[in-house]
Here is the input.
Amino acid sequence: MAPVTLRHVKKSYGDAAVIHGVDIDIADGEFVVLVGPSGCGKSTLLRMVAGLETITDGEISIGPRVVNELDPKDRDIAMVFQNYALYPHMTVETNMGFSLEHRGASKAEITERVNWAADILGLVPLLKRYPRQLSGGQRQRVAMGRAIVRNPQVFLFDEPLSNLDAKLRVVMRGEIKSLHQRLGVTTIYVTHDQVEAMTMADKIVVLNAGKVEQIGAPLDLYDRPINQFVAGFIGSPSMNFIGGQITPDGFAAAGITLPLPPGLAPGNAVYGIRPEHFELSPAGVAATVLLVEPMGSETQVTMTLGEHQAIGVFRERVKASPGETIIVRPDPANVHLFDTTTGARIN
Amino acid sequence: MGVLLPKLGSQTPTQPPPRRGGAVRCLGWTPCHNLAVVSLPLWGGIKGGGIFAYTARVTPTPALPTRGREKEEAMTIPPRTRPFWTIERRDAVAGYAFIAPQLIGTIVFVLIPLALVFWYSLHEWNVLANTFTFKGAANYQHLLNDPALPQVLIASAIFSACLVVLNMTLAILLAVLLDQKLRGIVVFRTLFFSPVVVSLVAWTIVWGFLLQNNGGINGFLQMFGITGPNWLRNSTTAMISVVVVQVFKNVGLNMILFLAALQGVPKELYEAARVDGAPPFKQFRRITLPMISPTILLTSIITIVGSLQVFAQIAVLTQGGPGFSTTVLVYYLYQQAFQFHFFGYGSTLSILLFVIVAILTFAQWQLRKRIVFYEN
Amino acid sequence: MKTDLSPTIKTALYGLMCVLLIPFVFPTWWMITSSVKPISDIFAFPPDLWPRRFDFTTYGKVFELQPFAQQYWNSAYIAAIVTVGTMAFSSMAGYAFARIKFPGADFLFTIVLLGLLIPSEVTIVPLFQIFLKWGMINTHWPLILVPIFGAPSVFATFVMRQFFIALPGELEEAARVDGLGRFKIFWIIALPLAKPALGAVAIFTFLHSWNLYLEPIVFISSKNMFTLPQALTQFTDAYGGAMWNIQMAAATMTALPVLLVFIVAQKQFVEGLAHTGLKG
Here is the structure.
């Protein structure tokens, strides 16, 4: 295990810059998730740490060593690919032992390590099979087995769960997380799914268009997003945004006034409120119901507040039909305000 | 909140020094200058508490956290010069090594001879008198005035055209027939393909035998009271014979390629057409043909270029005769160069052949844009 | 267009295919049966589909009239060397062009592709002179070197490149992370997975070499060095007339081995071809 540091890392393809200077510090043993929309550069960054992409500028260090010019094999990392990348013409056992074979480990050592990894991941009955005979989840586990056999300093995961169906994804999430707790190896995990980020990470790095937007613990990002992008990206359904002005009487947006926490300077702003922070309260604002989606444990209501459309999530069963009016009140303690031009947080 | 920093050169020594010296590589092997950096590392708050203190920090400021690094180390890191053998350079060397045999071979055995052919075509080369005199464009003049050449070109054109049309039509027809779910279809496929693997000269000799005036084919026709022509000694039928022999030899290849292409057409397209009520022939015209158009184009290029190279059949069956009726360009070239020893003129004919092939290939490649409907 | 067909249509299709089969199958059949007929019977009328009488001495006479065994060996070993050599060099070059980034790759690939555009007939004259200068006329060197490096192998390189482009790149990345150098990645990961394409290349190359006719005629003059296609045309009697039944025997011996291999392995043949990527 080792800490990983990215310092002023940049990447260009010819004249096109895709990563514009990224600094990230990853502590020893930490589980860090790189998350962001498609094309934000998270996979590129991961591959630069792995050595599969060249680094145009900046430094990447694993432990005390700067690894920019090192081959992937010399960086002491292991990677789990999105499409598992299992060698189709080799058995599970050979797949897992492959890298050890090529480092000249003894047969005994290889067998021991492969069996150890297979045991942890429940792959022992599958050792003699070929990848084409395995299900998606099994292949995923073999890919992970191949990685842990190496006992590397850093694990790299490149969207490993994207090809699995929803139920399997939930199961595998838990397995990856418990594997990390058991082995304690520094892990960098890339995904576009913010639910995976929230549930698995010690620390989340939100990336957008090649730049870091915010780094922090999951709940930090959830409760105190530093700008509108992070606020809208983390959390599902996403935060509602309403443009308007901060006035002494509250937040004035076309047609409605919304409650504000005290002590804010007047001016234009974007009002952000998460769906679950609406409550059904007579002291609120009238909203016209557009759509009611009962999820069982909660009810998701799409509604219009004045001229603005918003989504609210309520613990209670909301008995209203489209077209009817309900009274909702956003909780002022959980209001986020953002600058209209920069998107940066105001409160 | 970012601040555009001045060039890092003005920073204090505890900064990782900017890259100088050894060319800082941007892609493209040209040095690039240090770029000003805008970066926003933002620290999250303290975990586990209700109160979050976080600041937006602008880097670099003098006290960069030296987590995992000794302070001395930060000061004694030399300017980051990239070693010569970067990952890309090592890989590039491997790349050159891999292609070297093929590339050198192509240059030595294909490109240099091509240049030489052109050089030879400018000379009159009398092997017996051992003279090699520069004649400029004289050979090309001769080419234009050669009374035999128009016939040769016509014969080549007829041969290629008939061959391509017959070959492609038969190949598609056979492929469609073989695409049906019939029992024993694999046997038929094997049999249709078998001439491809039979030795070329053997195949030609057998046909030569069958096409004789008293050979098998005329014998068969005789049974019905028909007197067959002297296939190989009559100008028109000689050409037909040569075309037919070549077509049946090689059509199996194209048939297999078309079969593979037909099987690659998604079934849903046909099902949708059936639901829409389209009859089979319309389905063929509107779905099958466009979907296999890349294959059609590629095979026609290969077939046409191949047709210009047909030598053995002509040499064995007709020796170019009767007269010039089956003397295609390649055979004429062979006669001039290796039977009459006119190496200079033979080279000129080679250049002509090359130009024709180049034009045809180029023209078909351009057609790709208009006719090929579906490209991978 | 696989719809369920009525029995009448099915019968019609079978009938059509049988008729179409005749020109494909009959020559081979004729070749085999004629090889054991006495020469007068070959011209018998009405023609015999099955020999009336058998004359097996034809096969022996083949070897008497020519150094046929030697010629057979010539064709065989040349084809073997050319096939192996082409598979090696074209797979390496195809892999490099598909997967390795190096400066000038596109340009160099275009140069190699030019080889496809230039039929071997165009360059035969200077090649003759080159080999003459190297003292290799009437040896087998031209028949080995030119196919391995010239136009036929360029097609093979093209096919291998198409195939390697289609291989998932993640497999190689995993191998790099596992610690393999470029050559090992090629040898252990890429090449074993390229069996279908390699099979197609092997078939094309072998057939091409086995069937070469112009090149042997130009480069080789002594009977011992002949290859089979050349030898087949030499079975003439004292008057220059073809000795048909002996010639058919020789032709059968030339064609039969490849034909038998094909019948046994026809599935691989056909699949290999379909994999050449010529589908577009």
